[in-house]
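Case study 2.
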Amino acid sequence: MTAPTVFNPAPAIRSATLGLLRGLGIAAIAGVVLAVLGPFNTGNAPLWTRLVYWVPVMVAGESWGHVCSRLIDRWIDMDERPWLAVLALTAAITGPVSLLVWFVTGLVFEGQAYPLRTLPLLIGPVLTITAVMCTINVFVSKAKPVQTHAATAGSAPARFPERLPMKLKGASIRAVQSEDHYLRIHTDRGSDLILMRLSDALTELEGLEGAQTHRSWWVAKDSVRGVSRGDGRATLTLEGGLAAPVSRRYAKALREAGWY
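Prediction:
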């Protein structure tokens, strides 16, 4: 019996942390811009007051938005239905952030919390800013695909082939496809399912030349035989006729890496 492999969560944690930091940076910059512009009747306050107000509010909103994004991403594919993702994120973020803005705005500009009856007046501005930020994060902020590399001389081989079921041992891996909590491994001898997450598999695929082409797919580069385009999207044709999608968020990076 093969001993179970201990997962190394560091790459996934590192990727998530970088994504959060990138979002917080965008939010902080947006906060500075809003402080300088002074929208929604905040322009009469001194610049330092506007900075103290806008930057923390935007960063706090982004932090909550990051949590909402991780949850919504489980049910809505942001590559396939980006506008639905924007609507869902805007709806999930607006309510809690409106409460935050209502409380903080009164403290910063009046020295005390506003009366509760003023809360509905803040929903419109919060909704507007939230919708803009969600649109930027979904459409503009492009994630980079995880790329794996062939093992160099003297380095350890990829660990993932050890995961192959007995009937596929020694087969050449063409692609790995996520199906719920399982992975379908496509090889030159057929395919089979194993219980594993794609994020963990990507770590163990290091040592094989390939890349993540979609949130649910990793493809071996030497298995690609062609590419087709339709509806603004690319699809890779692999050896054996298998079709692997390329998501919009990964398309540019894969083109620059010479995949098609």
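The beta strands are 147-148, 173-179, 182-187, 190-195, 210-214, 217-220, 224-230, 233-238, 243-246.
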